[in-house]
Amino acid sequence: MEPDAFDEAEFFAALDRGPARVLLIGRRALIALGLPMITADYDLWVHIDDIEMLNRAVAPFDLVPNHSPDLARQRGRYVLEDGEHVDVLVARSRSAPDGARLTFDDAWARRQTVRYRGSIQIALPSIEDLILTKRWAMRDKDIVDIRLLEGLKRQSGGSDGP
Amino acid sequence: MALEYASPELANLIATRLTPEEFERRARAPLSEAEIEEVAELVAWFTRRYPTVAERLAYARRKFRQYAGVAEPSSTQAGDYEATAKRLADAHRASDPRTELVLLDPDPEGEIRLLEVTGSAPTLNQPIAVSLMPRPDLGVPFRSSIVLLSPEEWRRVQREELALPDGWIAARMCPI
Can you name the CATH fold of B32-175? Predict the structure, then answer.
């Protein structure tokens, strides 16, 4: 196999060591739960108070934030980028167009963890909360993801967790 | 539900935004038993073949690189079924040196169906096709599907002891 310049295991280990509260969202979260997909980017949701800690944690990977923490807080998102592209959501909460609201604190309290490899853990929103995140943008591709997550939920007997 | 979920994230750029009403209608449509079974089958296949999260994410990275790697066709090549199939097959071989054989199953509806025999695939005896959406921005304007088989599984297919997914016909496949 082609070697990976980006050390993904070390990246997730750095997130796992904390102390930043960070959730993996987006399609990589679905892949982690067992749904085969292809994706280019990483999507993270970080607690609004923990941006600086996250930036410090990923600095060894040459991931550079495109905005200062203060500006990222104002804009609600920023990007960590070098060879990899990491979209970081910063919002305290987000709402779907139908008004369904998800706060970071709630998603964090209900999070599930999956073992990446060895002792490295990745924090993900619960399946129900992942479905909520997929309702934010109302893209047609999100419909597919929502239905896959619903199927996964049904498969696991309606409960979250891999 | 068609197996259209294996599309690269760059599809964000060309993703269609729906009206709230249309989004709700489609998102809230009840899942059929067939859809639930399909998800279960997919998850079972994926987690058996790639038991750890690290392996699953590595698969996604590999597949994305394969797609990105074929994104340099000329405009005339881009619409050519066989040329696109060949570039996909070459990209897959490049990313998995243990690939022994790549066969194209010409599909009358223009889907690129590749059957790949590789020593890096475990023997699960449960062939399943993973489908990818067209990516014209990456030089792949055709829908594509891939079945990965271990050499042992391929031998069983040839002996007609193991069935390929519905619609896949080994007899009409040709090396590419």
Answer: Beta Polymerase; domain 2 (3.30.460)
User: From CA A50, how far away is CA A53, in angstroms rounded?
Assistant: 5
Token output for A108: 């964090």
Phi-psi region of B34 (alpha: psi -120 to 50; beta: other; left: phi over 0): alpha
Domain spanning A8-155, CATH architecture = 2-Layer Sandwich (3.30)
For B60, the closest of A9, A28, A139 (CB atoms) is: A28
CA distance A120 to chain B (A): 10
In tens, the pLDDT along A50-59 reads: 999 999 999 9
**How many CA atoms lie less than 13 Å away from A39 in the CB half-sphere?**
23
pTM of the complete model: 0.69
Tokens of A94: 């987000």
CA distance A123 to B33: 30
**ipTM value greater than 0.90:** no
